[in-house]
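Action item from last week, closing it out:
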Amino acid sequence: MNKINLYLFLLAILLTKPVLGQVNFFGKPGLLAIPSADWNEEQPLGFSFAYLPREFSLFQTNTNNNTLNMYSVRMGITSFMEMNLSIAYRPLLKDKIGIGDRQLDFRFKLLRETTFLPSLVLGITPPGSVSPVMSHDYLVATKNFHTGIGTLKLTGGYGSPYVFIRNKKSKNIFDIEIRQKHDFYNKLYLTGFFGGITYSLVDFGGIMVEHDTNTLNAGVYVKIWDRLYLQGYTFEGKELAFQVSSHFNLDFAPRALRKYEKSLD
């Protein structure tokens, strides 16, 4: 399928299918590459798969030019904390690195959105992540503006230019060193200020534009079935990427109560 056909396909879905919410390619609430401060109070369990073209892979170098398949699972632990695990699978290196690099991070809700204040979330990657390239520590805010012609969502934040790495040669698990992200594959993902805009004309669809501190990206998100979501996006208008995700609520009522509530509908 060429680029024009894919754009038309995504647009057709956007106009005909319902949708709710979106996640970034790490599988956490966000736009395309950047995170957002969106928070689901129902403590969801989420799964996602994202395809990134080789030109915009986190691991791109002159000798390691691979497409990237990102597998992620996210779980709400408490009303103010979520955990996310991502695996970066690179097909051309499967014989050397196996399933790929892993990354574990946590999101903490600092503020809930109010009439005048945005929601605020802190993201932290603990020291010891297998791949420092995937590490990111950030503070992000999101504010929704509901109008008569749709909903406008603004997201902005700052990503730390440093990464915390545990010294594997030391027996002391608290032996931590601080390095610059630039030292690893010359990458600057979420290093500095980032931001994005999401616009939804109706509550079942949206378009997105963002700057992830490195590239300018745009895309759409759609709902295919009850719990299945699709995103299509482009990096700098040069390469296409896509993502499929699914979400399940963990904070549900007992079966007897849900059956009773359904009988009242």
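Closing note: The first strand starts at residue 44 and ends at 52.
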